[in-house]
Amino acid sequence: FDRKADARKKIMLGGLFVKAGLDYLHPDNAHILYGMLLDCKEQLILNPKIIDKWK
C-alpha cells in the first residue's frame, strides 16, 4: 500500500468528476454521486459491453 500512489489515484478520480461537470454538488450530497456510481456498476455487471460506449 503506497500512500503516494493512493493519493495520486484519488486526485485523478476526483479530477474526472470535475471534468464530467459533477463538481457542482456539495460534499454533503456525496451520497448522490455514490448512488450514481453504484447504478453504473450495476449496469456494467448486467451489460459488460456497455463499456465500449465509453471508450
UniProtKB/TrEMBL annotation:
The lineage of its organism: Bacteria, Pseudomonadati, Pseudomonadota, Alphaproteobacteria, Rickettsiales. This is Conjugative transfer protein TraD. Pfam families: TraD. InterPro entries: Conjugal_tfr_TraD_a-type.
